[in-house]
Fold this protein.
Amino acid sequence: MPHRERYLLVCINRRDAGNPKGSCAAVGSESLVPALKEGLGQRGLAKRFRACTTSCLDLCEVGAAMIVEPDHVAYGRVTLADVPDILDSVEKGTIVERLVVHRPARKDDP
């Protein structure tokens, strides 16, 4: 199996409707992975980048959540409308700043 440059890990965890934590699946995350995979394929990027499903990323309060690895950047409140920007950023090696809910500290951070 080939190693990819980046992995897009999308939480598709589903909890009971009454659970106060909510869940990513309840806010549409299950539709993100097929859209990301389709976009990667259309752009000829599927051999470089991979979209995968995952269970809970412990970011329930900002679902739909995803993590881009190896950047260790977490995105929250992701919708289908964000997919083109995410694909652009993955291809360029940048980050969609408006979606960031967590990132590792940088060496130049105070």
